[in-house]
Each structure stands twice: as structure tokens, then as C-alpha cells.
Write a structure and sequence with these properties.
The complex is a heterodimer of chains A (113) and B (111).
Chain A: E1 5-7, E2 10-13, E3 19-24, E4 31-38, E5 42-50, E6 53-57, E7 64-68, E8 74-78, E9 87-94, E10 103-104, E11 108-112
Chain B: E1 4-6, E2 9-13, E3 18-24, E4 31-37, E5 43-50, E6 55-58, E7 61-66, E8 71-76, E9 85-93, E10 98-101, E11 105-110
Parallel strand pairs in B: 2-11
Antiparallel strand pairs in B: 1-3, 3-8, 4-5, 4-9, 6-7, 7-8, 9-10, 9-11
Classes of the chains: A mainly beta (113), B mainly beta (111).
């Protein structure tokens, strides 16, 4: 069974640009979650999508947004990039919203210059 | 708000047992998790325990849960150099889908 796949693996952007990160969940999983792992800040919850709907959002500004497609894959969009957006962005998926364990991908490393 | 605390560093000799400890605050958490992160990689789910269990064993891993003290531990038997990594404890926040992570414990295994 293929795990959670994320693309791209690395990305370099400059301040003010926009970026789109992609995630494909494990087959059969309908929930997708996004987390940010920034140096010194730990792992922070960003967004949760289930069945195409945004179910919950973490304490991040509106320039962080995303969507989930009918095939359950997901995109995370970040507009007006700032230096502090440099981080590892991790996507996870689960079979049933809330209770099942979340399985993570290897992440996208975003560097802002 | 909810919080998860872990010690930051643990050093053991190869072949010894490692015990990584975690405390959490949300008594309504249904599941508690242990994840492993190797350098440059994502999070690997190691094991998890349902809140009505006291203990779960999975090969070299033993998870102990003390609900009264809100304390979770992960014991790794016969620790190997390949176990060197950062270990995260996490709890699920109600039905929000949000995992709350501890700061991570860096496990160093000396040959």
C-alpha cells in the first residue's frame, strides 16, 4: 500500500510569492491534514479536510488556504510568502475523521529567501 | 489550552532499554500516539493507544498509559543505533482532527 505522497520535496521561493503544495492520501483515506514544522516552533496544525470540506483550521492567517479534490487529494496554498513561512509542511491522512491514526508523508521543505 | 510536554534529550547505550516520557493535559483525548522522525524525513507512526487501555506492546515497543496522572511513556527494548531519531508524543484534540504534539525527544544511541 502506497503511503502519503507529497510534492514537491523541496521548494525555494522569495518573499511575496505564492506557493502550492500537493498531497495524495493513502488509498481509502478520506481525511487530509496539513501541519507546519518550523524551526523552534514545533509541529503546528494548519488545516483538516474531509470529504471535500474544510473541517477545522489552526491559528494561521488567511493567506494559508487549501482545498480537497473529489479524489481526496489536497493542495495547500500560501500567498504573500514571508520569511517565517520557511518550514517543513507535512500532510497526513486518515481513514475516519478524528479517531483513526494520522499517517504522514515525508513533507515539503519550503525555504523563503 | 491543551498541552503536551516531553523531555528534550535522552542518551542510551546500544542494547539498553530507552524510556521516553510524556505528559498531556486533555483528559478527553481518545487516542494517544507516538511518532518517530529521522533527519530530513516526515513522521512515522510507531504506535498508539486507546484511552481505555493501560498498556500496549508491539514487538520492542511498550506503551504505558496512566490516565490519572495524564502520563504516557514509550519503552524501546534492546535499543539499536537505528533507533536514533526524534520521538514525538501526540494527543488528538476531541473531534477537531487536530493532533497536539510535544516538543519531541531526541534519542541518541551510543554504540
Amino acid at each position: 500500500e502506497a503511503g502519503v505522497t507529497q510534492s514537491p520535496t523541496h521548494l525555494i521561493k522569495t518573499r511575496g510569492q505564492q506557493v502550492t503544495l500537493r498531497c495524495s492520501p493513502i488509498s481509502g483515506h478520506t481525511s487530509v491534514y496539513w501541519y507546519q514544522q518550523a524551526l523552534g516552533l514545533g509541529l503546528q496544525f494548519l488545516l483538516w479536510y474531509d470529504e471535500g470540506e474544510e473541517r477545522n483550521r489552526g491559528n494561521f492567517p488567511p493567506r494559508f488556504s487549501g482545498r480537497q479534490f473529489p479524489n481526496y487529494s489536497s493542495e495547500l496554498n500560501v500567498n504573500a510568502l514571508e520569511l517565517e513561512d520557511s518550514a517543513l509542511y507535512l500532510c497526513a491522512s486518515s481513514r475516519i475523521k478524528g479517531g483513526q491514526p494520522q499517517h504522514f508523508g515525508d513533507g515539503t521543505r519550503l525555504s523563503i529567501l | 489550552g491543551e498541552d503536551v510536554e516531553q523531555s528534550l534529550f535522552l542518551s542510551v547505550r546500544e542494547g539498553d532499554s530507552s524510556v521516553i516520557n510524556c505528559t498531556y493535559t486533555d483528559s478527553s483525548s481518545t487516542y494517544l500516539y507516538w511518532y518517530k522522525q529521522e533527519p530530513g524525513a516526515g513522521l512515522q507512526l510507531l504506535t498508539y493507544i486507546f484511552s481505555n487501555m493501560d498498556m500496549k506492546q508491539d514487538q520492542r515497543l511498550t506503551v504505558l498509559l496512566n490516565k490519572k496522572d495524564k502520563h504516557l511513556s514509550l519503552r524501546i527494548a534492546d535499543t539499536q543505533t537505528g533507533d536514533s531519531a526524534i520521538y514525538f508524543c501526540a494527543e488528538i484534540e476531541g473531534n477537531t482532527g487536530k493532533l497536539i504534539f510535544g516538543q519531541g525527544t531526541t534519542l541518541q544511541v551510543k554504540p
